[in-house]
Amino acid sequence: MAAGFLVAVLAAVAAILATLPYEKELVHTPLVRNTSLTPDARPLSPGAGSGLPYSRTTLHFNSSGTACEAWLYTPAQGQAPHPVVVMAHGLGAQKDLGLHRYADPFARAGMAVLVFDYRTFGGSDGEPRHWVSPRRHVEDWRAALAFVKGGGLGSQYDTDRVSLWGTSFAGGHVLVTAADLPPGHVRSIVSMVPHLDGMENAKANLRTRGLPAVLRLLAAAAHDKLRAAAATGLDRLEAALAPPATASTAPVTKAKAAASDSPAAAVERLLAALRPAAAEAVSWLRAAAAPLLTPAYVKLLGAPGELALMQLQPAEIAAYFSKHPKEYQGGWRPLVLARVALETSSYRPITSLERLAGVPLLFVSAAQDSLCPAAAVRAAAAAAPGGGAEYLELPCDHFSAYGGEHLKAASERMTAFLRRHFGMQEGQGSEQGRGKGSGVEVQPEQAVGRSGEEEEQAASGGAEVDAGDAGGLAGGGTSPAVDAA
Ligand SMILES: *[C@@H]1O[C@H](CO)[C@@H](O)[C@H](O)[C@H]1NC(C)=O
Ligand SMILES: *[C@@H]1O[C@H](CO)[C@@H](O)[C@H](O)[C@H]1NC(C)=O
Fold first, then answer.
1. Neighbours of 414 (CB within 10 A)
2. For residues 391 and 362, what is the distance between their CA atoms, to the nearest angstrom?
3. 3 alpha-carbon distance from chain centroid
4. Measured between alpha carbons, how far is residue 180 from residues 341, 346, 353, 423, 446 in Å?
5. CA of 65, closest atom in ligand 1
6. What is the side-by-side order of every strand in the sheet holding 308-311?
7. Residue 403 has what DSSP assignment?
8. Statement: the pTM of the whole predicted model exceeds 0.85
């Protein structure tokens, strides 16, 4: 009786989650990949020949059998084999949403840079598109690192000197990826405005959004997950029932003929006879249920109250989109599979910190960060093994760290840090005119002191990076900045 009631309740919950009749903000139209915009379609330096101190090519590596696309920046100067910085983007983002702006100063300073897209994003393969998953993303990070360490880039690139750079969600992935690796495997790590603790994030969400809104997001996630599980289940069943690819034409031996009289063989024959009908029924069911089994997407970012993974103030949303390119590789849209909401609260990169002894770390935070609070990053930097990590706090919000003066301050500090741990001498292998700055530590006070400067100055500060190359990526060079994320 009680068991029957329980089953009925569970069935009702499953049915409601499977259809989520009241939810109007979920997106069920499939996110179709658009491959017409290739990664190389827009030159780094439009019309200006190649005046750049580096080149960029596109390549692919495999992550669990799926191709990930990457940009490889190779400095024109400096001695091969070049040290390599591996980079990837944050939550729901891809390489053409701003990573060029960080790769550029690194490549100018004589380092090779590999910027990759996670599976199902940008130029990388994988369906359904825009599947954000900490577990899968860390697999991609490990695959990228293994590819570089294994000599996949060729002899021009140093497999001994490899560092990781991650921002936002990836600021956590780099910690998880490098934890427990042998000493020196990764030379250093830059973790920028990092997501460190999903549990703390969940608590903060509960405080700011309230329980009903959190449950609403979790219901959307369960809905997406349930549909995916049902689709996978039916696909597997269909595959299992499909007739064997080639009928056996081997002559039946005497032993086999004898065995065919046994009861087991009789059952097998019966099943074989029923199989076509079952296969047909499952195929029919799969086709009939198809509209109910498409993935469900939620907005990557939205205003408070919206069904969105990140809820932001209008100014933050404006900052997010203001520097985006006009066209996105792969047909990117600010949508992610809803299922990610089930995975995030148990994802706690901060717990990897203690297993990073001996890896030099640079944490960069943003003082007004509403997503990845600076206080948590500061605490992580202080708690890093070996007496603490290096730390830089930018006087801005999360997304403003990707442009203008903040980008400049952060990239100067990062460049110096990465070079130092690659054992590169001051000035060596770096672009002329930049030599002095690239070897000099930028102290947090200095960076904070820049906050008073006007936005216009900040914009012109970024012009060195943007001129020509970055502007070209932004589409026609009309936008001063490539993008942000
Ligand atoms: C990726 O896997 C495919 C299929 O297994 C293979 O053909 C290809 O060479 C692999 N690519 C790399 C870069 O390992
Ligand atoms: C695909 O992308 C290209 C380049 O961004 C764009 O011109 C085209 O309209 C897109 N196609 C679709 C079907 O969205």
1. 25
2. 6
3. 43
4. 27, 20, 10, 23, 34
5. 2
6. 308-311, 297-302, 335-337
7. S
8. no
pLDDT at res. 45: 56
Q: Which helix (H) or strand (E) holds 199?
A: helix 198-209
Rounded Cα distance, 18 and 48, in Å? 54
Q: How much is the pLDDT for 34?
A: 93
> Does any ligand 1 atom lie closer than 6 A to the CB of residue 62?
yes
Residue 59 beta carbon below 6 angstroms from any ligand 1 atom:
no
- 82/104 Cα distance (integer angstroms): 15
Q: Which atom of ligand 2 is nearest to the CA of 34?
A: 1
Ligand nearest to the CA of 96: 2
Instruction: Classify burial at 337, counting beta carbons within 10 Å of its beta carbon; exposed 0-12, middle 13-18, buried 19 or more.
Output: buried
Please report the pLDDT score of residue 98 as a whole number: 86
- For 463-482, the pLDDT digits (tens) are 223 322 333 233 332 232 33
Binding pocket residue ranges, ligand 2, CB within 6 Å: 34, 36-37, 327, 331
Identify the residue whose C-alpha is closest to ligand 2 atom 13: 34
* pLDDT tens-digit map of 195-245: 999 999 999 999 999 999 999 999 999 999 999 999 999 999 988 888 776
pLDDT at position 145 over 80: yes
Residues 6 or more apart in contact with residue 332 via CB below 8 angstroms: 94, 96, 97, 121, 122, 130
pLDDT in tens, 247-288: 555 555 555 555 667 888 888 888 888 888 888 998 898 898
Structural domains of the chain, ranges and CATH numbers in brackets: 54-208+314-331+342-473 (3.40.50.1820)
Which residues touch 367 (CB under 8 Å, ≥6 apart)? 374, 393, 394, 395, 396
Is 41's pLDDT higher than 70?
no
Closest residue by Cα to residue 98 from 257, 332, 284: 332
Check whether 54 has a pLDDT greater than 70: yes
Q: How far is the CA of 125 from the centre of ligand 1 (A)?
A: 12
* Average confidence score pLDDT of the chain: 84
Count CB neighbours of 329 within 10 A: 25
Q: Give the pLDDT confidence score for residue 437 in this predicted structure.
A: 36
The alpha carbon of 63 and the centre of ligand 1 are apart by a number of angstroms equal to 9
Is there an atom of ligand 1 within 6 Å of 147 CB?
Answer: no
Helix axes 198-209, 211-241, angle to 10 degrees: 130
Q: How far is the CA of 36 from the centre of ligand 2 (A)?
A: 6
The total of other beta-carbon atoms located within 10 Å of residue 30's CB is: 12
pLDDT score recorded for residue 440:
34
What is the number of helices (H) and of strands (E) in the chain? 16, 11
Q: Which residue has the tokens 């360490």?
A: 149
Greatest extent of the chain over all pairs of C-alpha atoms, in Å: 92
Cβ burial, residue 351 (10 Å; 0-12/13-18/19+): middle
